[in-house]
Design goal:
alpha/beta; eight-stranded mixed beta sheet; 32% helix
Length: 242
């Protein structure tokens, strides 16, 4: 029986997909985003080992609260690092009539095999993807996360070609991503996609900084304040959010 490495679960999520969601945070991530609030999910091959049935049985206890739009959202960490387990989880969820959503930064995406075939199989059981574009500029993305963004943007183009529903998320960080020129570039890229149902601007916060310190890591945005309300509204205006 295939098992996944699970960091944690939350019973009542209201901002990670439509309706009320049961949230599953998988363990492991290759990115090192400077503002990450889940740095304790980075390590690969650790966490609580659980089967798809165990997770869905736990989620099912709260199904009466989901309403017509709710379901499960799998986040992380980076859930695509456990793509075979994620596919099994979503396959069983669809068998049970559960709406499925994956919250991903897309970093493992590749059109090379075997990943590409596995990704296409995952999409068969995926209703919605929440995709976090960390930075539209490749060099700035690498500085922010430790990785380039070419494959992530390619994943979004592929999802558009497949007409798979996507919500785009963008964390607004003063001095890092709060840049009108880059926001216009991001808007121009999003305008090339045919499958974007929603765009969200997420104001930066440092609520996860304590985890970095507990892990003995240097948090380099310690003196960065949250963006001012007018800057959030400015980003929403540029990105076309009404």
């Amino acid at each position: 029986m295939l098992k996944g490495y699970v960091h944690s679960t939350e019973s009542f999520g209201s901002v990670d997909g439509p309706g009320v969601r049961f949230l599953i945070f998988l363990q492991g991530c290759a990115m090192r985003c400077r503002y990450c609030h889940n740095a304790d999910t980075w390590r690969v091959g650790v966490g609580t080992e659980m089967t798809a049935d165990e997770l869905l049985d736990r989620a099912g206890r709260y199904r009466s609260y989901w309403g017509a739009e709710g379901g499960i959202t799998v986040s992380g960490g980076e859930p695509l690092l456990q793509i075979e387990f994620l596919t099994e989880l979503f396959r069983e969820a669809k068998r049970r009539g559960i709406h499925t959503c994956v919250d991903t930064a897309g970093q493992p995406f590749s059109r090379e095999e075997p990943f590409f075939s596995r990704f296409r199989e995952l999409l068969r059981y995926t209703d919605l993807l929440l995709v976090d574009i960390k930075h539209i500029d490749c060099a700035a993305h690498q500085k922010l996360t430790g990785h380039k963004n070419d494959n992530i943007l390619d994943m979004l183009r592929f999802l558009s070609d497949e007409q798979k529903p996507v919500w785009i998320r963008h964390v607004l960080v003063p001095g890092v991503t709060d840049d009108d020129r880059m926001l216009h570039r991001l808007r121009a890229f999003i305008d090339t996609l045919q499958n974007v149902q929603k765009i969200e601007v997420l104001p930066y916060h440092a609520m996860g900084a304590y985890k970095w310190k507990e892990l003995g890591l240097a948090y380099t945005l310690d003196n960065t304040p949250p963006p001012a309300a007018e800057r959030v509204k400015n980003a929403e205006r540029i990105l076309g959010i009404r």
